[in-house]
Amino acid sequence: MTTSALDRPTAPPPRASRPPAEDEPAALPHWACQAADGIDLESLRDRVIEADLAAAFDELRDHEAFIPALRASVEENLWHLRDVLSGRTRATSVLLGEPVALAELQARLRLPQTAVQRSYRVGFATMWEAWSERLVAQAEAHDVPRGESLAALRTMTALLLRYQDHVASRVADTFARADGALSRSREQVRAGLVRHLLRSDAPPLSPADLALLDYPVDAQHLAVLLPGVPEGAVRPHLAALRDATHTRDALVHPVDLSSTVVWLAQPGCPGWRARAADQVVDCLRVQEVEACVSQAAGGLDGLRRTWAQVHDVQRIRTAWAPLPPDRLAYDDVSLEVMLMADPVRARAFVAAELGELGAADALAERLRETVEASHRFGSHIVTAEHLHLHEHTVRNRLQRAAELLGRPLTERRTELQVALRLSRVLAQGGV
Predict the structure, then answer these.
(1) Of the four, 54, 72, 136, 239, which is 20 to 30 A from 430 by CA?
(2) How many independent structural domains does the chain possess?
(3) Are residues 369 and 293 in the same domain?
(4) Does residue 431 belong to any structural domain of this protein?
(5) Is the pTM for the entire model greater than 0.70?
């Protein structure tokens, strides 16, 4: 395990009980302090994290920023609570670091406060269960009288609840302040309006909200997903996209902490609609940034459709084998998006059409690449130039591909082309 709060040394419990502060629960007896110190914090940490995720944050299991922050917060709480139960410190004197940092992150992620509160209730219930089981086992091992055991269990519960109240109040205050500050910012308000617009059942925005949004919802929209660019770093890319597409109106919306969608708008311009995606791809190629680009579509329905399209393209792009293209437009993979709506049937189709040519090895992959290029260019010479091969090598590969396929490459040509395209996104497990 990496260095963490759980690695901090455990001091011995005090020899004598300290007098409790006003309204502070009495200290646990020595045998109960030993039980508290003997808990397996590493195992308990994992139980608490899983309980928190299952109860409130299941959709964030793979979030790169949230999971480390949650782990650090749980570790710090466990370490402090162990000291509280063992009598080394008072609950109300604990200074919190990681739980406060987690609350600020939760506010930035726009998580509901009810989810935050639920996670703390479930997490501390898991802690109480573990420590109470440990205390009961210690009492039985030392033949502690039943009355003394029950008194210790009540004291332990009171200490844990006192610490829980201390943490929950600090976390709630931090979350409320951070959430309030974000909610007052114009960017957060606009983000809320965008989330509203993206709902298929959302009522129309009021004139005041439309003015605050400052983006023509009824225009032609083109969406650009920048999967590696957080909202705070999108400004130079947006400026370049505006210049390349000759657009004034744009809308920026964070997908998460590390990716952003940018919409470009042009009121009723058919020519712009036809060339905008190519202009965007060319611009982003110069900037060497990864991107997914939608088709252009009009009105509120178009805004929603372009949002769905860039996410569909990203799913195809991340599944692309052997290496995903840095930039990919919806028009390039609309067939894959449609057919991968049913991955099971798509995989069965590819297996049936390609046979041995669909094998997951380097030779079959080279042959599929050659066949696909041959279909695209229609000439052995051009295919050889494109693949940087000798023309004889291309001919030999195509002959070998036909042998593996079990039929001439000219038979079921359309089905073969579709299967070859699908094989690229199924090679790593599909989407």
Answers:
(1) 54
(2) 3
(3) no
(4) no
(5) no
Distance CA 51, CA 54 (A): 5
Distances (CA, A) of 100 to 70, 128, 178, 298: 11, 21, 10, 44
Question: Tokens in use for 283?
Answer: 């611009």
Kindly indicate the confidence band of residue 322, based on its pLDDT and cuts at 50, 70 and 90. confident
403-429, pLDDT tens digit by residue? Answer: 888 889 888 888 888 888 888 887 655
Q: Locate tokens 């798509």: which residue?
A: 346
73-94 tens-digit pLDDT:
999 999 999 999 999 999 999 9
Please provide the distance, in angstroms rounded to a whole number, between the alpha carbons at the two ends of the chain: 33
Same domain flag for 230 and 311 = yes
Tell whether 84 is covered by a domain.
Answer: yes
Average pLDDT over residues 309-321: 89
Question: Which tokens in the block code for residue 227?
Answer: 């999967």
How many CB atoms lie under 10 A from the CB of residue 224? 31
Domain contains 224 = yes
**58 and 171, same domain (yes or no):** yes
How do strand 327-329 and strand 249-254 relate by DSSP bridges? unpaired
* Residues 292/225, Cβ–Cβ less than 8 Å: yes
What CATH number did the domain enclosing 282 receive? Answer: 3.30.70.2730
Q: Strands 260-266 and 220-226, how do they pair?
A: antiparallel
Verify that 321 and 379 share a domain, yes or no.
Answer: no
| Same domain membership, residue 17 and residue 120 | yes
> Which residue type does 136 have?
V
**CA 85 to mean position of chain CA atoms:** 36
Average pLDDT over the chain, rounded to an integer: 87
Domain of 388? Answer: 340-426
Name the residue type at position 80: H
What's the pLDDT tens digit per position in 97-115?
999 999 999 998 888 889 9
Dihedral sign from CA coordinates of 242, 245, 250, 253: negative
pLDDT bin (cut points 50, 70, 90) of residue 12 is very low
406's torsion region: left (phi>0), alpha (psi -120 to 50) or beta?
A: left
Decide if 291 contacts 284 (C-beta within 8 A).
yes
CATH number at residue 361: 1.10.10.2840
Same domain assignment for residues 29 and 161:
yes
Distance CA 428, CA 155 (A): 55
Structure tokens at 164: 């829980």
Among 312, 337, 362, the domain boundary falls at: 337
Helix or strand holding residue 301 (H, E): helix 299-319
State whether 222 and 297 are in the same domain. Answer: yes
Tens of pLDDT along 53-75? 999 999 999 998 999 999 999 99
